[in-house]
Amino acid sequence: MEDITRRNFLLATSMTLGSSLISLARLQQQPSSLPVRLNSSGITVLMADRSQRSDSLKEFRLGSIKRFWIENWSRPEEYFQWTVESPEAGPYDISLLIAGGPQIEVEIAGPQISSAALLSRHGWDKVNASTALILPKGLSKITARLRRNNEEPLKTLESKRKPNDWFDRRGSGLHLKSLELTPAAAKSNIEKRVKALHSSAEWLAEAKYGLMFQWGDWGYPSHGDRKPWPQMINDFNVDAFAKMVEETGAGYCIWSATWRGSRFPAPIKAIDRIVPGHTTKRDLIGDLIHAFGKRNIKLLLYYHPGHEDKTWWAQNWVSIDRQERFTDNYCSLMNEVGERYGKGLSGWLIDDAMVLNYPAPFERMTKAMKAGYPERIVSYNSWILPRVTEFQDFSFGEGFDAINHWPTDRKGVFIDGPQKGQQAQFMDILDGPDWGIWKPETIIQPPRFTDEQIADLVKNAAVQRKALSFNLLMYEDGSVSPQSLERMRTVRKIIRGK
Question: At what angle do helices 284-293 and 238-247 cross, to 10 degrees?
């Protein structure tokens, strides 16, 4: 849970604002008329911020790498347009990553025929066009517009906006992230590859709940200055920590390998090759796996790409238009970590996927994260937006607010909504004021939920087979709030019966 997408977004919004299955658009810092070559065997992403478009459409971006969406789309004369180059003639299925309201209709026009996408719900969704778009071989243009029969649905959308909803807070009109084009002839093959890389995450539903800790080289004690790297890692009492997690009844633990810093608490050679001094001799991850294994608790790692660490980022990032170096380094790192820990590492949660990596070679990245243990589960954070890829196993679930929005099947897999097809998992802050302690003299706040509130929350989630991950703040010495522990004991009694 990264700075912009989680904690400071309210403040920010008050300001002026290698896989063969993925063909990345030739991105430019400004809207481009350069043709995007379509992938005849995989998905091509047409980014809204790289379209030729009406001047009235506004881009929401924070900094050089935080690309969110294009907004203020509300009139039929407004348009998005891309020039594409198809290697052969044929039909392409179209999906839109879009936010709007029910009964709003978008027309997607090609050189020969048009298709339409009808929105069915409020907010963000992944919406399929009704028919495939027929494209000729060679160059052609694709245009997206609102149809002229949207006057009443748009009025309804504006009348139902809620000031506490991220989409509604951004103002009037629709938001568009991208169009995804899939060759109809390749669809079956893509689905087979997704299935082959899929791992069951039903054990999350069986576990029912777990704990999360964003603790690392950014941390501080309750008073005074923090220890130099890597002393805090060397001094950490793993057995005491694992015993504490066990006492809460948690079935799994999400541990932040990185967050506000990119130093990794284990001897990973791939990291040392990129930036020396960002690892440790002590294998804290391995120690956690050993301690949790004795207690039948699974370990998952949260990973942040590290753009707040200038030294690390300079060796990984070229630009949002050129992510090859980042992807190569990322996959090398993930391969080594996966092979090192094997089945001891049960899963990955990757932050910043929708605003940084997308579009990306997610198949390649997911394969790297499953190295050493094919059943390891993977999730990419899409925040409030729809799923970034089908090459993942469970929902990142940032926040408990949407817990009742979308139905699940008997296994706990979403059967509808923006995260359709993903095992349901939600995470949120139990105490705060943040996801981790990264400032001196931080005072941990009381739990956000009373005993009654947390009881209702976990009972409801258990019925729906939606796993809940409670994030607790932890000081440098491994101590947490006694009040937060007591809330988790309440959860244990409700779910475990003891």
Answer: 40
